[in-house]
């Protein structure tokens, strides 16, 4: 178990960018975009200077870029080269003016000063010290600048009656995440982080996507295939248990019933206009 824990820590992210995982992330982005894109449309303005943490397959990168216009800039930071390459190629199709791709971990990234927006979706919960990342992002904001994180409150999913197999999948995923030091309920901490960083909360809401199409519902069987080997290596599941749950997930997907997906919480916070810049006394 100790060896498994060490390899998880070295890996730093439970989900490799395989073809299967790319497709799953596209699916996930598709449900979350229904909430995220209107949110970005409310806060991103042409000409802003923005940083995105954790671009993944680039959905939000593309959405932000499309609003920024010719004078805005976006730096997207990801610790995975494959994710950065994928997003760069995706934006090559629709426009990547003003976009810079930075290969770095959020934990070690030095935010440029005077940002108008720091955005991250489903990334803070993967970082080693989410508060430190949040605090440094908040410190880089211009007065009136926004910080937006949209993160899971994963344990809230157990409030729902879940189809057979789905509950086992999430319990395994959470256990795997705990070994890797991830924070799957960080959505619940976002308001506290904002207040502690001296920001004003502008908007906060929860979002519970429901999987309704055949394509949507196939996300659960796919996820187990992505993490199955890691569960075996970590000693969290036997091959027999994995096969049983895989069958249950495929059956649940075939049944056609709507299924809950991870609840997410977003918190938009702003550096107050009246706040003194760092180093100046407040009046
Ligand atoms: C679940 S994906 C979310 C991607 C995208 N934001 C979205 O919502 O579709 C998490 C992304 O964050 C990146 N990531 C995970 N931990 C990170 C860290 N500590 N620093 C920078 N990027 C990280 C991963 O490589 C991956 O691209």
UniProtKB/TrEMBL annotation:
<dbReference type="InterPro" id="IPR013216">
    <property type="entry name" value="Methyltransf_11"/>
</dbReference>
<protein>
    <recommendedName>
        <fullName>Methyltransferase type 11 domain-containing protein</fullName>
    </recommendedName>
</protein>
<dbReference type="GO" id="GO:0008757">
    <property type="term" value="F:S-adenosylmethionine-dependent methyltransferase activity"/>
</dbReference>
<dbReference type="Pfam" id="PF08241">
    <property type="entry name" value="Methyltransf_11"/>
</dbReference>
<dbReference type="InterPro" id="IPR029063">
    <property type="entry name" value="SAM-dependent_MTases_sf"/>
</dbReference>
<feature type="domain" description="Methyltransferase type 11">
    <location>
        <begin position="52"/>
        <end position="149"/>
    </location>
</feature>
């Amino acid at each position: 178990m100790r060896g498994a824990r060490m390899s998880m820590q070295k890996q730093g992210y439970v989900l490799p960018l395989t073809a299967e995982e790319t497709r799953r992330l596209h699916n996930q982005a598709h449900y979350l975009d229904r909430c995220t894109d209107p949110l970005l449309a409310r806060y991103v303005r042409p000409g802003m200077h923005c940083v995105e943490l954790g671009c993944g397959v680039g959905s939000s990168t593309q959405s932000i870029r499309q609003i920024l216009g010719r004078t805005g800039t976006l730096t997207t930071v990801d610790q995975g080269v494959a994710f950065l390459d994928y997003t760069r190629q995706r934006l090559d199709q629709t426009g990547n003016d003003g976009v810079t791709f930075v290969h770095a971990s959020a934990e070690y990234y030095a935010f440029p000063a005077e940002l108008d927006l720091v955005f991250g979706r489903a990334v803070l919960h993967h970082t080693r010290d989410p508060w430190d990342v949040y605090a440094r992002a908040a410190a880089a904001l211009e007065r009136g600048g926004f910080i937006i994180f949209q993160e899971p409150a994963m344990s809230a999913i157990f409030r729902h009656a879940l189809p057979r197999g789905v509950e086992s999948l999430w319990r395994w995923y959470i256990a795997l995440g705990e070994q890797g030091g991830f924070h799957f309920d960080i959505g619940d901490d976002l308001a506290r982080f904002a207040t502690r960083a001296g920001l004003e909360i502008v908007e906060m809401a929860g979002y519970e996507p429901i999987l309704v199409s055949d394509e949507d519902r196939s996300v659960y069987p796919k996820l187990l295939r992505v993490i199955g080997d890691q569960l075996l290596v970590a000693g969290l599941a036997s091959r027999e248990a994995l096969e049983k749950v895989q069958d249950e997930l495929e059956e649940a997907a075939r049944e056609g019933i709507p299924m809950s997906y991870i609840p997410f919480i977003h918190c938009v916070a702003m550096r107050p206009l009246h706040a003194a810049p760092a180093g100046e006394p407040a009046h």
